[in-house]
Amino acid sequence: MKAFTVSKAVTALMLAGLVLLPLYSHLSGNIFILTLFTRIVILALAAASLNLIMGYGGMTSFGHAAYLGIGGYAVGMLAQEGVGSGWIQFPVALAASAIYALVIGALSLRTRGVYFIMITLAFAQMAYYVASGLARYGGDDGLTVYKRSDFSGLVNLSNRTQFYYLCLACLFGVLLLIWRIVNSRFGLVVQGLRSNEQRMQAIGFPAKRYQLVCFVISGTMCGLAGALLANNTDFVSPAVMYWTRSGDLMVMVILGGMGTLFGPVMGAVVFLLLEEFLSQVTEYWALILGPLLLLIVLFGRGGIMGLIGRAGRG
Amino acid sequence: MAEPLLRVENLVRRFGGIIATDNVSLDVAGGELHAIIGPNGAGKTTLISQLTGHLAPHAGSVLLGGLDITYLPAYRRCALGLARSFQITSLLLDFTAADNVALAAQAHAGHSFRFFANARKERGLRDAAHAALDRVGLAHRADVVVSRLSHGERRELELAVALASKPKLLLLDEPMAGLGATESQRMVKLLQELRKEVSIVLVEHDMEAVFALADRISVLVYGRVIASGDPAAIRQNEDVKRAYLGDQHVVTRHG
Question: What is the rounded end-to-end Cα distance, in angstroms, of chain B?
Answer without folding.
Answer: 43
